[in-house]
Amino acid sequence: DAGVTQSPTHLIKTRGQQVTLRCSPISGHKSVSWYQQVLGQGPQFIFQYYEKEERGRGNFPDRFSARQFPNYSSELNVNALLLGDSALYLCASSPGTSGRGETQYFGPGTRLLVL
Amino acid sequence: AQSVAQPEDQVNVAEGNPLTVKCTYSVSGNPYLFWYVQYPNRGLQFLLKYITGDNLVKGSYGFEAEFNKSQTSFHLKKPSALVSDSALYFCAVRDPGTASKLTFGTGTRLQVTL
Question: How many CB atoms lie within 10 A of CB A70?
Answer without folding.
Answer: 7
